[in-house]
Design brief:
Layout: H1 4-14, E1 16-22, H2 28-41, E2 45-52, H3 57-67, E3 72-77, H4 79-89, E4 95-100, H5 106-110, H6 117-126, E5 128-137, E6 140-142, E7 145-149, H7 150-157, H8 160-166, H9 170-179, E8 185-191, E9 194-200, E10 202-206, E11 210-211, E12 214-215, E13 227-231, H10 237-250, E14 262-264, E15 266-271, E16 276-279, E17 282-286, E18 289-302
């Protein structure tokens, strides 16, 4: 496998890429043609382009893209699309270029990728290859987070049309509708020989630094060999709503040293009843579940001045 510097040089010199855009993501259909034109204008030879429209088509397009052996795979979409690409590219000699065209774009925000399309293309054309961690849910890699409890039900029930119209407000709107009948979970988080017990409607385990389009803490990132577990609120619905509002307002000021965060390399989550799990915005089974870090597993394009740990 080439070094990161060698891969960066190959991308600058050969400009061989494949473009995949999830046309069903919030801005995907709108910006697919623009992304294609901008990359071509920047001197890239696009070995293939894939506007993904149908369920199941994304995995097929990603497989075909890898078989073409580009130096760079540019993927446009939201966190579910980016997560699928990250899983496939883990430990491969291909860099991932991000076009954040989804609703919350958490992984792109964690990596400092601008939401503006021109600025994101600028990162791809003028940036460098770095490597970042992925999480592992069992054996399944994930880029951004695992959500246990209410968020998994929200992912299942949020209408696609509402996401396109309301953006990241679609998720809290759906959550509010579900809250009236949602029961809290008793959760055990086992890590580093200790067990933390809590009761909550929602537990997150994050690899990246953003959730719902906002910072989790000021110092969480995808390149620190840590997963960050934290509940959102306690057993009451009021505490969940209050914690959600506080997290949105104060996430950029908190650090991993503050409660209720648990930053570790591996953990086991168990619940009093099987609870649904979502992985990077896609349903992914139920508890119990073991989570760990796959260090430096993914190569991505980032700004030239980003610190690569």
């Amino acid at each position: 496998m080439r070094t990161k510097q060698e891969l960066s040089d190959a991308i600058r010199q050969r400009r061989r890429a494949v473009l995949i855009v999830n046309a069903k993501s919030r801005r995907g259909r709108q910006f697919y043609t623009d992304a294609k034109q901008r990359l071509t204008a920047a001197g890239f030879t696009l070995l293939a382009t894939y506007p993904v429209d149908e369920p199941g088509e994304l995995e097929h397009s990603l497989d075909e893209a890898v078989r073409l052996a580009p130096d760079l795979l540019v993927v446009g979409g939201g966190d579910g699309t980016i997560g699928a690409a990250a899983r496939l590219l883990a430990h491969r000699d291909i860099a991932l270029g991000l076009l954040p065209l989804g609703t919350t774009n958490n992984f792109a925000r964690t990596l400092g990728i601008p939401i503006d399309l021109d600025a994101a293309v600028g990162i791809i054309t003028g940036g460098k290859v770095i490597d970042v961690d992925l999480g592992l849910a069992g054996d399944l890699p994930f880029a951004n987070h695992v959500g246990i409890g209410l968020s998994a039900e929200v992912m299942l029930r949020t209408p696609p049309g509402l996401k396109r119209v309301a953006g990241k407000l679609a998720y809290p709107a759906t959550a509010a509708a579900l809250m009236a009948r949602h029961r809290p979970m008793r959760v055990s988080v086992r890590a580093e020989g200790r067990t933390r017990e809590l009761t909550t409607h929602q537990l997150y385990v994050a690899n990246g630094g953003h959730q719902a389009g906002r910072p989790i803490t000021a110092d969480a990132n995808a390149d620190d060999r840590l997963l960050v577990a934290y509940p959102v609120g306690g057993p009451t619905r009021r505490s969940l709503l209050g914690a959600t509002a506080r997290n949105a307002a104060t996430g950029h000021r908190r650090t991993l040293r503050h409660d209720p965060f648990l930053a570790v390399g591996e953990l086991l989550v168990e619940t009093d009843r099987p609870a649904p799990v979502e992985i990077d915005g896609e349903l992914g089974g139920q508890t119990p579940i073991r989570l760990s870090v796959d260090a430096n597993a993914l190569r991505v394009m980032a700004a030239a001045d980003v610190i690569d740990r």
